[in-house]
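Components:
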Amino acid sequence: MPSRSSSYGPYAQGSSANLADILERVLDKGIVIAGDIRINLLDIELLTVKLRLLVASVDKAKEMGIDWWEHDPSLSSRAHEGHRSLIEENKRLRAEIEALHQGTEVGTDEVLTDGAREISDAARRTSPGEQDRRRVEERGEP
Amino acid sequence: MTVAISYAYAVARDDGALHEALTGVFGVSGAPVRLVRTEDCDGLVVAVSPVPSNDFDEESLRRHLEDLDWVERTARAHHRVVEALAGRTTVLPLRLVTLYRDDERVRSALADGCDGFASRLDELTSRAEWGVKVFVDEPSSGTPQDPPAAELSPGRAYLSRRRDRRNAREDAYRRAGQAVSRIESAARAHAVGRVRHRPQQGALGPRTGQNVSNDAYLVPLRDAEDFRAEVAQAADGFTGVRVEITGPWAPYSFAAADLPQGRTDAAP
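Structure:
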């Protein structure tokens, strides 16, 4: 082992690390193992998609005091309805994703919203192994 | 009824003193982090901390994941634990909010995945992840490269300025494309794996400029300094192009065993 391996650290970016950099790693990457609490992976996917749209600007938005979550038009086409509409939109997107996961993908591209299309792209990019795990998770306990 | 359940952060190999790395480190709900081990999986441990079940059941999580402040706090706490461990040994970070009813269930998950975790840890030993982002600063609209000739009519002057701006913008992206290629070759000379992340292009955009590439590289520790220096240098001479290097990161982007390993990506 070369002596320079002692310069392993410092893994000490700590609070200075960019939030976007952290989120794309802890949400999008990392090992997925089945836990006991059934986190709906669709929720994580949705969040990831939203963060992809928004995350780079989070620090900036906060700095500027912008209430981006409620008012950002790219987040919700019904932004003026505030938080409630976000939940509604998530419900709608979940339904669309579930439809996608049930294999109705072919021929539905035209009717997908941008959000769902992005998720479906993300799903396609997901490695086969991970998709299998997801299917298992969605079916419930083996 | 609220009970404590176990939030799992990462799998790592304990050299016998790994707990020292966790002194003064607190988990997502502010509780100390402990190492859970099983006799069936030699030396491997899972870092966990207790979290209140009522705050981490399915219903609460669904709500929390809509709340960016909660997501940020949780992600940063998760990352702090992973980072503390990574400072001492090789880790496999787990995805955010991996939860078990109790440590016994963590133990059984560790035993189930033992072989896969062990071989992945071996592959990642003495390697760290580095982030490389490339930004292009679009030319500001107020500074056309050449002022239009004075005798042009206002209409022609306007069109001429527009054309100049468009050309300047195209030039900037062409330079950025060339810079990205240069940076990638420099990075591959040292990296043993690469994973592409999406460019960070939020609704409000990055602070300045456009992020045109956002990659993670797995780099042997002994090559880290050369990697950094050569990647940083590769953007020299490209006006309006910036490269940002972050790291070392725990190998988040390379932890999942079924990810393409990019061996073919790497230079010989």
